[in-house]
Amino acid sequence: MAFVYYGQGVSSLYGDFVERLVSHLALEGTEITHQSIAEAAARMDVRHTGETGQLAIEPDGKNVRVTYTVDREKKEIGRGLMGAIAGGGIGSILGGVLRGERDGGEMVGDIAGGAAAGGAYEAYRGYEESRENRTAFAELLAACVREVEDELQAILAGQEEAREALRERGRQKREEEEAKEEEMRELLDDLYGDLLAVQEEIDLLASEGLKITKPKSRADRAEKLYLEAEEALDGRKYAIVAAKAKAARSMVESAQESLDALENE
Fold first, then answer.
1. Cα-flanking dihedrals φ and ψ of residue 36, to 5°?
2. Could you tell me the strand order of the sheet in which 63-70 lies?
3. Which residue stretches, if any, does this entry annotate as coiled coil (predicted)?
4. Which residues contact 131 (CB under 8 A, 6 or more apart)?
5. What is the pLDDT of residue 252?
6. pLDDT tens digits, one per residue of 80-115
7. 252, 218 in Cβ contact below 8 A?
C-alpha cells in the first residue's frame, strides 16, 4: 500500500526539503537506511516502531511528492471470521492467530468441516493485507511533510520579502537619480539662459565699437565650463556638474559686471 503526500510550492528548495524531512523523521526515532539521494529523486528504506517501508521523494512541478510504500505483513486479520463455526468459536481462531500459536489458514482449514448447517464465515484475509488504511508511520510522515513545507514556505516568503526590498530600494534609487538629474538640468538651463543674455550684450557693445575684451573672455570661459558641465551630466557625474556650473555662474556674473562698467563709462 502506498501513501502519497505533497510539499506544496517548495520544489525550488528540493534539496533542503529532502534534508529537512530526513532530519525530522530521524528526530522522531525513524531508522533510515539505503539512502540514495540525487538532484531529481531520493529513495530510502525506513523503519519506525516495527513498521517498515520505502520512501521516495521527487519534485513534481512546483511541489515535492513524497511516496511511502509500506511493507505488508502476514500477521494481520483484515476482516476475520463471522458466523457460527462448530468446534471452534471466532474468538479462539482470532486469538490463536494473533498470539502466533497456529497459522490462521491452518485453523480455518481444521474447523471448516465442522461448520453448522446454515452457519457462515468469511475467510481469513490477513495474508498480504495492510494493517490499516493509514499506518502510524504514514501519519507521522504526513505531519513531518507539513512541518517541512511550513518551514520552507517561511524561507520562500522571507526570500520574496528580501527581493521586494531590493526592488523597492532600486525604485527609490532610480527616483532619486531622476530627481537629481532634473535638478542639475534645471541648473544648467538657467545658467545657459544667463550666458546667452551676456553674450548678446557683448555682441551689441562690440557693434557699437566698445572694447569688450574683458567681458568676452569671461563669457567664453563660462561657455567652456557650461559645455563641460553638460558632458558631466550625460555621465551622471552630478558633483562635477555642480562644480562646473558654479564656476560658470561666477564667470557669467563677472562678465556682466564688466559690461555694466563699460556702459557707465
1. -135, 100
2. 2-7, 63-70, 51-60, 42-48, 31-37
3. 145-194
4. 51, 70, 73, 76
5. 95
6. 333 333 333 333 333 343 334 444 444 444 444 443
7. yes
Set of cell numbers at residue 193: 539662459
CATH 3.40.50 fits 2-72+134-162, yes or no: no
H or E element in which residue 227 lies: helix 213-234
Residue 78 DSSP one-character state:
S
Q: Mean pLDDT of all residues in the chain?
A: 81
Amino acid at 83: G
Q: What are phi and psi of 5, to 5 degrees?
A: -130, 155
Q: Answer whether 0.70 is exceeded by the pTM.
A: no
Q: What is the 3-state secondary structure (H, E, C) of 164-230?
A: HHHHHHHHHHHHHHHHHHHHHHHHHHHHHHHHHHHHHHHHHHHHCCCCCHHHHHHHHHHHHHHHHHH
Residue 167 contacts by C-beta under 8 Å, 6 or more apart in sequence?
A: none
Band (262; pLDDT cuts 50, 70, 90): confident
Please tell me the distance from the alpha carbon of residue 62 to that of residue 150, in angstroms, as a whole number. 15
Residue 180 CB neighbour total at 10 angstroms: 14
- Is residue 70 a contact partner of residue 46, using CB atoms and an 8 Å limit? no
Domain definitions of the chain by residue range: 2-72+134-162, 73-129, 174-263
In whole angstroms, what is the distance from residue 250 CA to residue 230 CA?
Answer: 17
pLDDT at position 160 over 60:
yes
How far does Cα 126 stand from its chain's mean position? 47
